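TL;DR need structure tokens for one chain.
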Amino acid sequence: MVTTSSKDIILETARNIFKRFGFAKTSIGDIAIAARKGRRTIYTYFESKEEIYKAVIEKEVDVLRTKLTEVIFTESNAKEKLKGYMITRMVTINELANYYEALRNDYLQDFKIIENIREDFDNQEISLISEILTEGVEDNEFIIENIDLTAKAIVIALKGFEIPFFIEKVDKDIEGQLNSLIDILFKGILKK
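>> reply
TL;DR here they are.
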């Protein structure tokens, strides 16, 4: 039988509370009551609400990273890996409520911890996409002059899609719109 540690219980409880009420409207007391732990227990593991939120976001980023890595290892060619990566990324971010809130809310933009997590993840994404692109070039699927620049451009494009999908809550056809972006990426815009 697997036992859940107090820290894990606190994190999962905090995740659910942040998801429901957001960072600003959640207090350490709310987390303690919902986790059925004393405030002292909370402070044994975390110094502040910000530290708890950071841990929750890091856990969600780990979920995202795991799903993206799985896509890379399950698809057979670079084109399908890149397509699967892009779709999985956007769908998963939509499901990760707290990471999503951190992307969405202006007042969290000044929260240096979130900025650092995002910057680290952006760099990891560029690296993962570079690997896919390199594989595609080596297997003659892609013709790319500058893999690093192309990987950065793809990450920037995906980040740009976050705004209409998640913040403005426009058309939720994530896969359909991403397929259009993927077509542009693979076929270009020049008439052949």
